[in-house]
Amino acid sequence: MSASPSVQAVARVAYLASDSIFSSDAALPSISPFVTALNALSSTAHAPISVQRIPFGGDSGAMLLSSHRDRSSLSLGSPNGTTVNLTSYLTLSHSHILHHLLPHLPELVYTPTVLHVAISTFPEDDLADILVLRAALPFCIYSRSAQDAHDNALLASRLARTERRTVLHVFHVGTAEEHAEFIDEESIKPYLFAERVSLNRFNETGEAKSVSAAKVEDESDALVSAYDAAALATASLLQRPVQAVTTSGAYAPRTVLFTLGSLSSDINVEDTAIVELSLLKPLSPTRITAAIPSSARYILVCEQVRRWSIKWTPLYLEVVSALQADNRDEQPRVRSVLLGDATTVTAEDVRSLVVRTSTEGQDGKKVRLTLGALPLTEGAHGTIRSEEAKFASAQHVHIPRHEASYTTLLETLFGARLEIANSPSHVYDAAIVSTSPEFTLGRIRGEEDAIQTLERDIKVLLSESTFDGTLHRLLSEWIAVRNAGSRIASGKTKDVRELETNFADRIVAALEEIEAQGGLKSAGAAAVRVYQARALFRAAAALRTRSRWIVGSDAWAYDLGASGLHHAIASGLDVNILLLDSTPYSRRQAHGSRRGKQDVGLYAMNHGDVYVASVAVYASYAQVLQALMEADAFPGPSVVLAYLPYTSEESTALEILKETKMAVDAGYWPLYRWNPAKDHEGSGNECFSLDSDAIKNELQRFLDRQNHLSQLVRARPRMPAELVSGLGEQLKVARRARARKAYEELLTAIDAPPLTVLYASDGGKAEKVAKRLAMRAKMRGLSASVAAMDTVKLEDIAKEPIVLWVTSVAGQGEFPQNGRAMVKALNAAVARKERPLEAVKFSVFAMGDTHYWPRPEDAHYYNKAGKDLDARLESLGAQRVIPLGLGDDQDADGPETGYRLWEPQVWKALGVDEIQVQEAEPEPITNEHIKVASQYLRGTIKEGLEDTSTGALAPSDTQLTKFHGIYQQDDRDIRDERAAQGAEPAYSFMIRVRMPGGVCRPDQWLLMDQIADEHGCGTFKITTRQTFQFHGVIKGHLKPAIQDINRALLDTLAACGDVNRNVIVSAIPSLTKLHAQVYAFAKRVSEHLLPRTTAYHEIWLDKKLVAGDALKDIEPLYGEFYLPRKFKVAVAVPPTNDVDIFANDVGFIAIVGENDELVGFNVTAGGGMGVTHGNKKTYPRAADVLGFCTIEQGVYVAEKIMLVQRDNGNREDRKNARLKYTMDRMGVDVFKAEVEERLGYKLQPARPYAFDRNIDDYGWHIGEDGKHHFTCFIENGRIQDEPGKEFKTALREIAKVHKGAFRCTANQHLLITDIATEDLPQIKALLARYKLDNLSYTGLRLSSSACVAFPTCGLAMAESERYLPILIDKVETICEENGLRNDSIVMRMTGCPNGCARPYLAEVAFVGKAPGTYSMLLGGGYHGERLNKIYRETVTEPEILAILRPMIKQYALERREGEHFGDFVIRAGYIAPTTEGKAWYDKMGGEGQHREVSGSA
Ligand code: SF4
Fold first, then answer.
1. What is the number of the ligand 1 atom nearest to the C-alpha of 1349?
2. Which residue in 479, 727, 749 sits closest to 603, CA to CA?
């Protein structure tokens, strides 16, 4: 082949632009056209570079990689000092060359390489191999003409250099008549090394988007930007357009031809447009749809792809998929057209194609459309594969054509080496059973055993034989070759095989000669056996290079059963298993089994030394090829799970594509490869490559287990030093040991009696019990598995011999969320009067709380879920092995008391009670382990943020992110729906800002407003800790959001977690000077108690790498365990107790001297709100006053109190870890003495103070300095726009002009402060315009507050923020009826007993228990000085109203002057006062006539 202008152009650019060049030779007798072109260049260029030639079929990928490795240490200098070494590779397209690149692409892809691949002329112009490569590379550029080839070669070189990625440039060799204009040699290097062009990229809709400013949405967006920048640079160099997509022809066409092939650009057909793609990857769907005008009715995708192994071609699938996502009124019909010899296609051919398209199907027939002459050997359906033809000829077995895609691929890759060991072609010789994988495996094993026996006999023969020297030598050499062969690299196997075959032939000839001469018998029994097995010599040689596959397919081979698979894996045979799964994603429920084919992968991976891949040909063609080649190369068993969802042979492309996409995207069918050989190679490569974005939960858990050792290293600093110091090598060894152990365990488990443990659990308690039960079962030798109920199907349960059920109970006897689908299925079966569980033995353990529903009429709710389940199982025929176990929170040891009775009975019933369990149960991982293992709050947060396969972070990291001010949550409104779809919960994060005293400037407010819009759910919340909270921030936005918060000079460090949290301060609008002093004090306390770890800055602000310097961190106050629990500090300025000082761990009550100067603080300690329903070890506590300290002492007093708590707090039980419990355990006096000892002085006696309220001072106030302050009412702190209440907009507009500050209150409202008199009119006008100055609410509403609860708070049991305003609507009517419209009654609500809105200090409070159901509390002090108490344990709205109506009426009639509601209900005998936290449960349930009988504690 001579060097055409295209070849010359590409060779010249490659030569001048690269630092090294490789060129593959063509198949003999042809000569690569690049040879001549490159030779000519090297003789003329000033600085010749070496061109390395690779023989045809050589491993070009390996050579390119090794060149990159060699050159990485060299610097080949560039004009601007950059040292990116560009490698160019030139080759003709040929599958033998290109397929060998595939295994290396994952590594090669991150090197600056251009693969210039030339397409020969018809009939060798098939683009199939190119498209395989394209699938595995980030960039693919296609050139039709010589000029395109020249221009795109430049573009590709620049792109590879700037992006340091591999670029595939495909071009047609073309003809000698073509012409191309070449760029000057001198211009090339400056162009290549010029800075990346900064441009405003226009997105496909024409909207300008600045690349530098815009946030790159994802990887493909970044790739598109990179291409656009390189294209712009190239266009400005060449002064010619360089376009990704070119459209010609009609303006509003009816037909659009997408062409991938060298079709002439002069073709002009009426009503038709021709779209030529130059950029084949990244090819965004919008780029495709932008090329299809709305007038288009037919889309013809013409591809020069005739050797494609699957039914639909790549561009066709992309067009179909792009249109599917495009919301068009009328969808055009898309047809795939096989493009033949494109160079001969005329306008008339296209016209006739268009006519055929619009008339086809009228006679009921649908034919494959073609354009241009096709090669004679290829029919309209493409090449019929011989394997497929063989299968088709088998009478008894029909292979669905879709499934043939995979077997065809095998043939393409391995050709003559391929052996499908259970091919239906064997049906002729061995009946249909020969397609059974088990049968085949037995046959293979037999072959292998026979060869091993032969080897043994030969060794015996060699040791004792009297054969002459020739045969003896031949046999010795044969053995030597076989031994050596196993160590010889795969590339050399052909030579070894030839050598072995040669020996085999000579040995057989020699043996036959001896036998003919009658000398065999005298040589002994071994000689006779060797002679009889002589046929095996050749078979053994043949096996060396065979690619042997067993195919498991629902359609044509019996599926590989669990035992078959186990034997295949355990055999260690070098055999590849291809398991096809055709279950469509949308029908997985109907077909589904939790032991589906996906789980086979996990099982195989657990084995340690098995190659495993999960592939889907319609998701990634290249990945399938890669997996098949790796499986073939792996020296042991390989399992490839292949997905091809279809319902019938008539399933359309769109159906299969959609199903594949859904399955892969949802993580139902993750694409991955697990290659243990990489570990053995010691290459440092990861064994596991995830090829799809989503990852299945089970798979994630497997990987988590793999990472477990590194977690342990962090968690246990005492671990051997070598393991700590050399994670790399040591971990590999450890992992192999672990794999061996897992293997042994699996072997045991497979033979052990099976036991299934199922759980339903909302809070995780029942789940823990179930997992512990399964673990203990394993220790007793049972093959136990554990799962959430909703992850299994009733049909599968019916197959299990023993199932143990553990369930907690939710709400009013309902099932926990993850058991509801199962219960539905059970109920449905009961309704149908079925008895599917007759073969199943079962027992249920139920966990509940007898006191949760204390009224006699509600008693049946106790453990209702478990009781119902027990009864259902019995009605479905299951046999109860032991009676229902009941765990009660109220028992001495909680549910453990009941459990301890139930579990031994289980072991007895299963006959394993006598088994001695020697191994200690592993210690559960607690928050304390997580903290100490986290390297000062790092954990694996950084890695988790980079993991795009899930919207969540690792569970341990979610504990650590709290210290960074971040909580992981999920949208609870749609949790069930997502679970039903098989999708993970809709994870998002809450971010809380650290903002001592709640003060921020207007510019900071504006940034908060923007952050809520850009990263959150569009609203934000002022919290009870006087700060901002953003909800709905998805993982990808976490880091940008935190960075934006820091840009506003605020941060989120320690806003949550076991550290001192945001310090809160009375808002006191009128006392300007005092506020300034206490605010400054609060900031000092906050800064002083701030964690010192640098993890925050590393992870979120990219200040330095997370690894490396981590160990330099020290936490002088906290140490590596931090505090046992959260820690809260507040500063109050009497008479306002708006911060609820007594709810805080430490409080400072400002004491003012004679000159109205701050002189110091009364110090309080031991306040706290959180409670657990029904757990009397938990209670709220109001703080004690310890004494007085000066301003200067205050910071250290806070520190010492915190340190006493750090060292004395309960780290065993987080529910008992807060300072309030520590103080009660130590005693207040002992605690105070310890604090004073650490201080080195005694606190002074407390000074007099008086509070008169804990609600906010709404409205206008004038400070001492004459500045104006306005306190707005923002209901429950939610900053949002609602119809008629556009408060978010209002505050944004105010922030734009405001010169003072904003101050949040701890009651979730907002002050606009420090308004100069001259600015007053403007601010007032804005307040009025948006009705933010409206304070005409009832006293009840103004005194109310609620926590967030649903939908974001993961702990919420009932509504709060969304419900309290509705309840107040009703209660305020009662107040108004009784003339109490303006009377303040402090009413608070929380969605759970954690108490975020401080409900236990309210006069009346509601604490969520279940949806629509609350505990009602009464009797708190009006200014937060006294705890309230439970009045009714379970009330719903009608009951609340029924209780409050007479109570409020009586209050209105009988209250004394100035008497508050909380005091009144005590005086009137509704409830007893709470004297201290420990006495909180005493006398709960009302007093006297108001006592709820069942509520007595
Ligand atoms: S009180 Fe409970 S439901 Fe409300 S925000 Fe706090 S944790 Fe969530």
1. 3
2. 749
Q: Which residues line ligand 1 (CB under 6 A)?
A: 1347-1349, 1353, 1355-1356, 1360, 1390-1392, 1394-1396
pLDDT surpasses 70 at 563: no
pLDDT(729) > 90: no
Start-to-end CA span in the chain (Å) = 97
Catalytic (active site) residue 302: no
Compare 1258 and 710 and report the one with higher pLDDT: 1258
Indicate whether 330 pLDDT > 90: no
Question: Has 1456 been annotated as catalytic?
Answer: no
Residue position matching structure tokens 């100035």: 1458
Could you say which of 497, 938, 1125, 1128 is catalytic?
1128
Told to judge if 1392 belongs to the known catalytic residues of this protein, a careful annotator would answer: yes
Look up 1128 and say whether it is catalytic.
yes
C-beta of residue 1428 within 8 angstroms of C-beta of residue 1420: yes
Closest residue by CA, ligand 1 atom 6: 1396
> What is the full DSSP assignment across 357-397?
HHHTTTTS----EEESPPPTT-BTTBPPPHHHHHHHH-SS-
Instruction: Tell me phi and psi for residue 573, to 5 degrees.
Output: -65, 150
Catalytic status, residue 53: no
Q: Quote the ligand 1 centre to 1396 CA distance (angstroms).
A: 5
* Best of 1169, 1390, 1401 for a ligand 1 pocket test (most atoms within 8 Å of beta carbon): 1390
Catalytic residue (choose from 1061, 1181, 1232, 1432): 1061
Q: How do residues 366-399 score in pLDDT, each as one tens digit?
A: 567 888 888 764 433 333 333 333 333 333 445 5
| CA 1358 to centroid of ligand 1, rounded, Å | 9
| 1061 given a catalytic annotation | yes
pLDDT over 80 (residue 190): yes
Rg over alpha carbons for the chain, rounded to the nearest Å, is 38
pLDDT, tens digit, for every residue of 1433-1474? Answer: 989 999 999 999 999 999 999 999 999 999 999 999 999 999
Higher pLDDT, 471 or 939: 939
Q: What's this model's pTM, rounded to 2 decimal places?
A: 0.54
Residue 849's beta-bridge partner residues?
none
* Concatenated DSSP letters of 337-348: EEE--GGG--HH
Report whether pLDDT(767) > 70.
yes
Question: pLDDT tens digits, residue range 643-699?
Answer: 888 877 677 766 777 788 777 777 778 788 888 777 654 444 567 777 765 555 555
Measured in Å, residue 1348 CA sits from the centre of ligand 1 at 6
User: Any catalytic annotation for residue 1445?
Assistant: no
* Integer Cα distance of 532 and 523 in angstroms: 13
303, 335 contact by CB (below 8 A): no
SS3 percent helix, strand, coil of the chain, rounded to 5, is 45, 15, 40
pLDDT in tens, 1400-1442: 999 999 999 988 899 999 999 999 999 999 999 989 999 999 9
Q: How confident is the model at residue 216 (pLDDT cuts 50, 70, 90)?
A: very low
CA-to-CA distance for 299 and 289, rounded, in angstroms?
11
1056-1083 pLDDT, tens digit each: 999 999 999 999 888 888 999 999 999 9
Do the strands 966-970 and 987-992 form a parallel or antiparallel pair, or are they unpaired?
A: antiparallel
Burial class (CB in 10 A: 0-12, 13-18, 19+), 1147: buried
Instruction: Look up 931 and say whether it is catalytic.
Output: no
Q: What spacing in Å lies between the alpha carbon of 1354 and ligand 1's midpoint? A: 8
Q: What type of residue sits at position 552?
A: G
CA distances to 946, 1259, 1383, 1396, 1414 from 1342, in Å: 45, 12, 10, 18, 22
Task: Report the alpha-carbon distance of residue 348 to residue 356 in Å, rounded.
Answer: 12
Q: State which ligand 1 atom lies nearest to the alpha carbon of 1350.
A: 3
Residues 1483-1492 have a mean pLDDT of: 90
